UniProtKB/TrEMBL annotation:
The keyword Iron applies. Its main location: nucleus. The gene is LOC105158971. One of its GO terms (molecular function) is metal ion binding. Keywords: Iron, Metal-binding, Nucleus, Oxidoreductase. SMART domains: FBOX, JmjC. This is F-box protein At1g78280. Residues 232-395 form the JmjC domain. Belongs to the JARID1 histone demethylase family. Its cofactor is Fe(2+).
Amino acid sequence: MHSGVCNSNGQLQSETSAAFIKDRRADALGDLRVLPDEILCNILTTLAPRDVARLSCVSSVMYILCNEEPLWMSLCLSIVNRQLEYKGTWKKTTLHQLDLPQAYNEASRRPLQFDGFNSLFLYRRLYRCYTSLNGFSFDDGNVERRENLSLEEFRKEYDGQKPVLINGLADNWPARKSWTSEQLLLKYPDTKFRISQRSSKKINMKFKDYSSYMQIQHDEDPLYIFDDKFGEAAPDLLKDYSVPYLFQEDYFDVLDTDQRPPFRWLIIGPERSGASWHVDPGLTSAWNTLLCGRKRWALYPPGRVPLGVTVHVNEDDGDVNIETPTSLQWWLDFYPLLPDKDKPIECTQLPGETIYVPSGWWHCVLNLETTVAVTQNFVNSKNFEFVCLDMAPGYHHKGICRAGLLALDDVGFEDVEKNAPGIESGSSYLELTRKEKRVKVCQSQEDRNCGNGTNGMCQGDGLGDLEYSYDINFLSMFLNNERDHYTSLWSPSNCIGQREMRDWLWKLWVGRPGLRDLVWKGACLALNSGKWYERVREICAFHEFPLPLHDEKLPVGTGSNPVYLIDDYAIKIFAEGGLEASLYGLGTELEFLNVLHNLNSSLKNYIPSVLASGILVLINGSFKVLPWDGRGIPEVISSSNLLSIKHKEVDYPFGVWGKKQFEYQTAGKPLHESGNCGKSYSMWPYIVTKRCRGKIFAELRDILSLEDALNLASFLGEQLHNLHLLPVPCSSPNNRIQMVEEDCIQPSLGNRCSENIGDKIDHPPAEWKLFISILNKQRKNILSRLAEWGDPIPSKLIEKVDDYIPHDLTVLFDIFQNETEVSRSCTWIHTDVMDDNIYMASCCPASLSEESISDPCQADSRYVKRSNSSTGQKHSWYPSHILDFSNLSIGEPILDIIPLFLDVFRGDSHLLKQFLESYRLPLLRKESLKESVENSRFSQLSYRAMCYCILHNENVLGAIFSLWTELRTATSWEEVEEKVWGDLNNYTGYC
C-alpha cells in the first residue's frame, strides 16, 4: 500500500510534500481540535441535514468533514420519508428526500479543495469505499466440504457441533438458474424489498432502484437486501426453493407463519457488502445457500469473541448488543493483526453451495462480488435447549453464551454455584442497578488459551481452573434463578416475546407428545417450570385435589401468571408484577366475586366458580399453604414489611381501591424501576376455580363461522353491559387507605353512591380525580415509552404525540360535568378481554338439546346454535365463560373496548357493531355536554379511545400498526384515529 495521507480532495499526498504545508486543523477547529476525526464524524451523524450544511460553512476542515459521503449516507437513511432512489451521491439523495428544488442541485458549484489537512481515518474510509475484492479470496479455507451427505451423517458429525459446506443441495431448485440480479430485475422491477443498514428505520426499495444503486455506488458499507418478508412481497420466490432434507426438523413450524419469529431471508448485495460479526438470534442454527456470486465466511466457535468486537449485556433485561466493525473493515483492518493460531475458521462459498452454521457460532460474511442467497434459521433437537436458555430472564447466561468466560471478569464462581439450577432461592434477591454490563473486548488471544472446539478451555480472571464448555448443563449454571421468570423483564433481543414463548411451548407440548421430555427441559430453563410445578403440587396436596399428571405438568395459556389445568380444576399462581401487585390482583378478584354473589348478577353464570384461594409461603425450605378469601390482612403479610402502602383493617384492603392506590404509585414508571419486577419472594397468592370445558377462543379463531363470531360479539356485549352496571364499592371512613404521598387522593364516592353531585370539575368525585391523576402520570413519560417500543409505531407520529394529547388530561373530563350532575361514573372494567380469556364450548346440533347439557350455565339458548340442516352445519362453538378477572380496575368503559376490538375482533368493524348493539349502554352522554365543548374533539369517542391507546401500559399501538399496516405511512394521529376508531362516533348508546 502506498504510504501517505488523504487531503481534502480525496487524493493521496506523499508524506514528504505534506510536511511542508501548514496543518490547518488547529486553526479551523479551535477547541474541537482535541477530538479525533472519528469522534467528530460520529458527532456529525447526530445532526439534522440542514444543520450539517450550515456547519460546513464554519471553516475549511468543517467543510471537509461535512461533505463526506458516509456522513450523508447516514443522514439520508435517518430521514427517509419517501421512496428511496439513489441519485448518484448520498448528498443529492438526501436533498431529494428533503424535496429541495432540483435547481439547487444543478446550480451547486464544484467542491472546494484545501491543502494542509491530513486524516488517516478519512483515508482508510476512502480506501474501503473504492477497494476491489476481485483477488480477495482463498482457494479452500478450512471448513469441511461435503457432497451426498446423509441425514444420519449430518446429525452425527455436524449438527450442533461444527460448520460444514455442502454441495448439491440446491441442484434441483428453479432458483439455481433464475436467482441472478439480472433475472430478478426482469421479473420484480417494482417489488419493494427490505434493506439492511446501520439504522433503526425500516427501509424498502424497489428492486429496479436497488439494482441501479448497486451498479454505481462506492460505499464502504453498501446497502444490502436482507428481507425476512420477501415471501409476502414476492410469493413466487417461495416456489423457487425448498428446505434441504438435512434441515427440515424445525420446531418453530408448529406456529403459523405470522406468529413465528423471522426465520427466512432473501439476501442480495454488491461487492463489499456483508454481515458483520454476530451470533444468530435466539441461538438458533442456520443454513445459507448461495445462488450466484462468491461469499467469504469467517467463523469462531461459541464463546470466542472476535478481535474488534465488544459485547454489551444489559443487567436488567439481558438485552445483548454488539459493537462491531463492518465486515469489510474487519477483514482489512483486524484480520491481518491476528496470529495464525487466533485466525477464524474460514471458507469461500461458491454458487450452489450451502453452509451450515451451528447454534451460538460467531460468523462474519463478506460479499466478494454481487451475490444472491437464501437463508433460514431453525430450531431442532440439538439446539432447542439453547434457544430456551437464551429466552430466559437474566444477563449472566446471555453474556456467557456469546462471550464465554470473558463475561465473568467480575463475578466469582461461587456466585454461579449459588444460582445453579435446582437450588431454591427462597426470599433472597440480588439487587441490580440500571446499568450496562460491558463485556471486555477479546483482544489477541495470546494470553488466553481458548481452543477452537465447542468444549475448549479458557482461563478467566479469578476463576481458577473453571472450564468453558458450550454444554447446556454448564451454561444453565449461570441462570439467575433468584428471579421469578414469569415476572422478570423479557429481553428486547429475544426472537419472540414471553407470551409467544409460552404459546410455542404449549403447542409443542400438545402437538408433539414424543418431545415432552425435551420440551419440559426447555420450559424449566425459560419459565422456571420445575419450580412452579413444585408449588402447584403443594397447593393440590393441601386442598386434597388430585396431583398433576405427567401431561399436566406444563403451565397453560399465554398469560403472565402460571396456570395449571388439573382434573376438574384450574389453578392460577399470581406472579405478575411481584408480590404486592399479586396481592392486589387476587384481592380485587375476590372482592368483585363477592359483589357478584351479593347482587346475584347474571354475569356470575359466565365466570368460573371459585373453589379455593390463599397464599403459598416458603418458610425455612418448606412450603405452607394459608387459605385467604381476600378479607383482612394475613399476618404473614402484615409482619413481612414488604408492602409500600400501609393498610388499615378493612374488609378488602387489597380490593379495587387499594389496587388503584398502588396503580397511582407505579403509574408512569419504567418497568425496571418498579422495584418488584423480577423480584423473587417466598410468598405466592393463588386461586383455584372450576375448570371450563371447551377451548379458548384463540385456538378457534380461524375455524369459527361468521355466525359464531357474531354470536360471540353479542355475548360479549351483553356481559360487559352487566359488568359495567355493577356498583363499584364505596369507600367509607372505616374503609380507607392510609396515604403515603401528599397528592394521593382518597376515594370517597363509589358508583351509584350519589344521584346528584354539585361539584364542578375543580372538585371532581374522588374516583375520577384518582383516575385522572394516574393518566397524568402515564402522560409524563409517553415519548420515551413510545420510542422504546419503536417499530412498528412510526417515528414521525411519536414526534407529534405532544400536539395530539393534552398535557393535563383533566380537560378530557370537562365534558362529563355540568352544574348539577356527573353524566357517567367510574365502572368496573375487566381491562383484559382478549382471545385467551374467552372460553368457547362445543355444540353438535344434530344431537344437542337443552336437557342434554349438564351445566345449566352453558345451556343459555341465546348462545347455543341449533342444527341447520339446510346448510349442512355439523359443528359450531358458543361462548361459555370469561376468564381472568385479576386485572380488574375501575375507569371508563371504553377501556374495555380497546383490547376487545384489537385482540378479539382484530379490527373487524362488523363485529364491533354487533357488540355495541348488545352492549346498550352510553359511552358518553352528549346531551349533557356544555355547549362550549360540544363540538370539541374531546367529546368524540374516537379521540378518547385513541388517547387511551397511546397512554396504555401495554404496547397497544404496536397491535394497531400491525393490524392496519397502511397506517405506518400516516402523517397524523387524526388519520390513525379515524381509521381505527371512527365507527365509535356513530354510536349513541341507550339512555
